[in-house]
Write a structure and sequence with these properties.
By secondary structure, this protein is of the alpha/beta class. It folds into three domains: 163 residues, Rossmann fold (3-Layer(aba) Sandwich), CATH 3.40.50.300; 67 residues, Helicase, Ruva Protein, domain 3, CATH 1.10.8.60; 102 residues, Zinc Finger, Delta Prime, domain 3. Helix content is 53%, strand content 7%. It has 16 helices and five strands. The chain has a five-stranded parallel beta sheet. It comes from Armillaria gallica. InterPro entries: AAA+_ATPase (IPR003593), ATPase_AAA_core (IPR003959), DNA_pol3_clamp-load_cplx_C (IPR008921), DNA_Rep/Repair_Clamp_Loader (IPR050238), P-loop_NTPase (IPR027417), Rep_factorC_C (IPR013748), RFC_lid (IPR047854). Keywords: ATP-binding, DNA replication, DNA-binding, Hydrolase, Nucleotide-binding, Nucleus.
């Protein structure tokens, strides 16, 4: 016989997970909320804006370089179609680089695609959303899916097209099998132009109360090569580095280059001057000693600093190709040298020897 009175069980509502905006990565914090916030993809945004009024969405294939807004665009469109409440049960987002086998297609995707959409939930924010009678499956990094998985996905797209629409997101459209690509409307995302990237970075810096010079923004754009996501990450890292001291130190282009793993401009310019390429010495300081001895000394200095040979040669290549006074023959001879060095480095060749080899042959080509 028990002398303890049983206590009534109480069920607690699950706590809603809330992320402190101060702890969020800026990439997520400033991700576009609507398709109108997407930068520099005017054609795609114009077409998708019409789907908001007609709510007749086809299967879609977004492709283009990383960091150009592909995933952000389809997520923003989905939120504008369904609203925050219906978004959770109407949208399935999978990263195909992790879940790329045929079993995922047959189980997870098929089970979601075959379910009839739930009834529309009234939005708590008071806004009205189109909420069309279908669901959306977003497959990020779809070019990582196996051939078998893509083949299985083709049949599912056909069978459940009435209640489920698919959006494939990838970097390389050639890795999507043709029968799958032909069932989708293709949208090509281009690398962001410098002005669009600059405007977005300045907007983030202003919102975060950070003072950045135009030279810092230019360094961010050059270091990220048109990848806005990477540029925003570099800006956040530079901001944290700046605020780690008291008082905070100003962010400089050199800080951005160090964070990005890019060789500083003055080192590349000094190396180019040693090779006989005319560089404005007002930027680089004292002119280094040219010739064979100078080249060996410069290469040893680069290796001693620990810079990547591939990064050094990549930046030197860009400097040579865009140089205003070198003629076409000199640039083509240098280009062949860079190509040979790149192949050798990919095969595991010695970095110091190949930087020296490139230096000597570029010096011979421009002399």
């Amino acid at each position: 016989m028990s002398f303890f009175k049983p206590q009534a069980q109480t069920t607690k509502a699950p706590l809603k997970h809330v992320v402190d905006p101060e702890l969020q990565p800026w990439v997520e914090k400033y991700r576009p909320k609507t398709i109108d916030d997407v930068s520099a993809q005017e054609h795609t945004v114009a077409v998708l804006r019409k789907t908001l009024t007609s709510t007749n969405l086809p299967h879609m294939l977004f492709y283009g370089p990383p960091g150009t807004g592909k995933t952000s665009t389809i997520l923003a469109l989905s939120r504008q179609l369904f609203g925050p409440e219906n978004f959770r049960n109407r949208v399935l987002e999978l990263n195909a680089s992790d879940e790329r086998g045929i079993s995922i297609v047959r189980e997870k995707i098929k089970n979601f695609a075959r379910q009839t959409p739930r009834a529309q939930t009234i939005s708590s924010d008071g806004k009205e959303y189109p909420c069309p009678p279908y669901k959306i499956v977003i497959l990020d990094e779809a070019d990582s899916m196996t051939q078998d998985a893509q083949g299985a996905l083709r049949r599912i797209m056909e069978t459940y097209a009435r209640i489920t629409r698919f959006c494939l997101v990838c970097n390389y459209v050639t890795r999507i099998i043709e029968p799958l690509a032909s069932r989708c409307s293709k949208f090509r995302f281009t690398s962001l132009d410098n002005q669009s990237s600059s405007n977005r970075l300045m907007h983030i810096a202003t919102s975060e109360h950070i003072t950045v010079d135009p030279s810092v923004v230019e360094a961010l754009i050059r270091a990220s090569s048109g990848d806005l996501r990477r540029a925003i990450t570099y800006l956040q890292s530079a901001s944290r580095l700046s605020s780690s001291t008291s008082p905070p130190t100003p962010i400089t282009p050199r800080d951005v280059q160090e964070i990005a793993g890019v060789v500083p401009d003055d080192i590349i310019n000094n190396f180019a001057t040693v090779l006989g390429i005319d560089i404005d010495q007002a930027m680089t300081g004292t002119a280094p000693k040219p010739g064979f001895t100078g080249i060996i000394s410069a290469v040893k200095e680069i290796i001693r600093e620990g810079y990547s040979a591939s990064q050094v040669l990549s930046q030197l290549h860009d400097l040579v190709v865009l140089h205003p006074t070198l003629n076409a023959k000199q640039k083509s001879q240098c280009g062949l040298v860079f190509a040979e060095a790149d192949k050798a480095l990919c095969d595991g060749a010695d970095e110091e020897l190949w930087i020296l080899e490139v230096g000597l042959r570029v010096n011979k080509a421009v002399s």
